[in-house]
Amino acid sequence: MEKLKLLLLAFFLGLSINSWAQKTEVSGVILDEKNLPLPAANILEKGTTHSVVTDFDGKFKMSVSNPNATLVVSFIGFTDQTVKLDGSKTNFTIRLASATTALEQVVVVGYGKGSRKNLTTAVTSVKADQLNNGVISDVGQLLQGKVAGLNVSSSGDPTKQSSVVLRGASTLNSSQGPFYVVDGIPGVDISIIAPEDIVTIDVLKDAAATAIYGNRAANGVIMVTTKRGGKDKTQISYSNYFGKEYVSNQLNMMNAKQLRDFTSKNNLNFTPENDKGADTDWQKAVLRDNGALSSSHNLSMSGGGEHGNYFASISTINKEGVLLGNNFSRLIAHLAVEQFAFDDKVKFGLNVTNSNSKYANVPQRNTVLLQAVSHLPVSPVKNEDGSYFENFIQTSYFNPVAMIAHGDDDTKTNNFVGSFTTEVKLPFGFSYNLNLSYQQLNSLHGEFYDSYYQKYNSANFYNNPDPPLTKTLMNFGVNGSALRSSYQNSNTIIESFLNWDREFGDHKIKAVLGYSWQEDVLGDGFQATTTNFPVDNVGYNNLALSNYTSVNGYVVNFGDSKAYQKKRLISYFGRFNYNYKDKYLLQGTLRRDGGSVFGENNRWGYFPSVGGAWRIDKEGFMKNQGIFTDLKLRASYGETGNSSGFNAYTAQFISGSLGTFYYNGQQVGAYGPNQAANPDLKWEKTATANIGLDFTILKGRVSGSVDLYDKKTTDMIFNYSVNPVLVPVGTIVANGGNMSNKGIEVGLNINAIKTKNFSWTTNLNGSHNKNEITKLTNPYFIGGDSIRRVQPEGAGQTGSTLQIFKEGKPLGQFFTLKYAGKNSAGVSQYVAKDGSLTTTPAIGTDYHYAGSAQPKFLLGWDNNFTYKKFDLNIFFRGVFGNKIFNATRADLFRPSTAMTTNILVDAANESPNDLNSYKYSTRFIEDGSYLRLDNLTLGYDFGKVGKYIKKLRIYETVNNLFVITKYSGIDPEVEQGGTAPGVDSNNFYPKTRTFLFGLNVVF
């Protein structure tokens, strides 16, 4: 009997072991350090290609090949963790360490991923929960103040994207913005991304990190990773917010009483046409009465099975501007599907996003802003009969409220991005990827100015463009004028690359070799203008109702003759990473780009890079020390290029219309060359040397990094003036200039306090950059080593410029008159070129260098507190050491014209006899430094509520709570992008203070 029992026991034990050998089911949950679930975490059975991802609760279930298998758990922003099965336990609770306590998170780099601990390059990662909260519709604002060396500036205009500059300006011919890669698709318009769908953003800074993208990477690369589906049952998530925005600050203009007192004291008189006994606050008159409303909704659903997953979301945002008639709305639909096949050795991916946006712009926005501050308070908005007040006898004096009411300026865009990817796991550590993507942007724009605008034609209506453009005289036809345009941009990309990932004892090798083909078609469409409509309510929707032929001299504007462009880019790229004992790390990359936009003699460019790192903490002499848990020294060098900011046909000879000439009693069209060919035009190249140190101390409580860089741009492309004898057009786009950026970046992450019920983490980042134009010449260039520019052309300021391109000076160098106070007669005087004082300075001749718009220091300080279920975020950011040319203040500092245009309150002590007081000079250059409490968010997490709600969190956010600054303008956050940074010129859309309430629910 005992033998029978033993035989049965052996049989069932063997059966059990055989069952384990065939199939072992394991499950569990992946949590972070706060015991919060991590959705979309990856669990891989080591040594196989079999993997699953967690659902929205952080749960997973999978089958492994044997009971002693090893699981590798990873999640972007957290340390990988290895779990060894022991054959008995089948349910696991696994907690991953955050990147704030260990520099070992997974980082997305070009054509692959890497462990932060083994990076040889400068990369900063920002997780979704670290991004800025608020009424935000673009990625730039999400990152504002979060990344050392990233300078982001934004206005209160909901229709305008932020300007983003990484490690200083690198060129004179483009917006300076970085190159965006979304889910592996290069060059994506980031307006298609819903902020709620973002998992992480990786900012690639040095050339060793960005060189894999070659000619498009001179301004840095930003990698955006969006959410993917989990396994098993469907997860549904919903989030929303409702907000209200108010103008945070306005210029202190004189009211009616103050201006009457000033004019009476100085024997000045209003004209009867202007003085109607009113007391109008014109800045308030163009604003919404009770603030601007905003709302956003995001609904997502995800799920999957053993061999696939999906994620789908739909997002809406509606945002009113604080100016009348100004609003913005966007609808984004997103679908991501992954399907595994052939024993999970092949993965197919489909990623589709469509974004539909509507922009209601303020008609002639910048002129409205100018008129709102310069209009006399004694003039009313409306006459007694209800019509709008106007005085057309006075030139350039227009009612800004009437301008908004009688004009329309609308834009509709539809942005589609789709990609299909295939990844094949091959033997010997190889994998093959084929990525196909297509992007299409359709833009429909319309402007209509009804017959009311016809009255402005006789009163010198100038537009007021953003610097460095100069104003032009507008004409609105008769009986209404309209503009309609429809353009389409498309982008097709095919990328194919082979990865190799192998270990040979202490040696690890990762390599990628690939090919990329891209074709862009831009400006495929048309534009037309017309005038003379039978009624005003037609708008821009039916141009056929107009009768422009009866208007003498009217010419239809068909738009830019160079709008249509077709570009092609072909590239070969490779990267090699070598790792010895996780101690010595080496990386090399090379990309060869061929682009159709350059001269036929220089179509191809090479962009190499090399980087190395030494993980000092892995050395034997570090074993017994208790300070560092991670210590790594990095060094890299690489070259990248810039192919943006100029036309696809820039290097080619182009003929076109040159107007008309009188011949044989008729005006005959003239045609001839209007662009010179340059067969030698080549890439701008930006070379960056970087030395960095990453560290973690005090058992993971403190971590950080320090980077020193030297970035040099050579062969800068610029439109040079040349001798017409050599080039009949008189200009040529050529290589010639050089620019330098040198700086330091510091990032620090501190887990200051962590108890059972309370925690405090603080993150600090700071950076300093020095920019300099080191060369500005070309063999054909006839302008010397400097170019005066930025000409706002305020009243009485004809010919005055504010900045200069100059060798040895930074981009944004102010160059103007030097104010020297007032002489004995009370007249403003200036320092002449020879050092003497003068009250009649010569424009350009008596100019002096007067500081730079480039900030010396950028700061971001993020604090996160938790107490039980409460969480509090307090975020400060600051910009220091930059100058702002307050041209707005200068134009409102004209006491001699106080009877025709309003002046600032602090101009009350100025004398109308001083006709120099308002001249653009150092008097109006101010310190632009500021420290802003940018975000204050208080939230409460209810956790699981009832049967169906797995998580519920509510929060209240205040943006731009206060700003500490000496700047006297509306706000010191003046434009920092482009080639005319730091100029406040009657075009500043008011910054807002936002109050919003939101919730996040997971079902």
From TrEMBL:
Domain TonB-dependent receptor-like beta-barrel: residue ranges: 407-961
Residue ranges annotated for the TonB-dependent receptor plug domain, each copy included: 117-221
Keywords assigned by UniProt, alphabetized: Cell outer membrane, Membrane, Receptor, Signal, TonB box, Transmembrane, Transmembrane beta strand, Transport
Segments traversing the membrane: none
Cell compartments where the protein resides: Cell outer membrane
Membrane-protein topology: Multi-pass membrane protein
Stored Gene3D superfamilies: Carboxypeptidase-like, regulatory domain (2.60.40.1120), TonB-dependent receptor, beta-barrel domain (2.40.170.20), TonB-dependent receptor, plug domain (2.170.130.10)
Annotated Pfam families: CarbopepD_reg_2, Plug, TonB_dep_Rec_b-barrel
Matches recorded under PROSITE patterns: TONB_DEPENDENT_REC_3
Signal sequence coordinates: 1-21
Ranges in coiled-coil conformation: none
Family to which the UniProt record says this protein belongs: Belongs to the TonB-dependent receptor family.
Protein name: TonB-dependent receptor
Organism: Flavobacterium calami
Source species taxonomy: Bacteria, Pseudomonadati, Bacteroidota, Flavobacteriia, Flavobacteriales
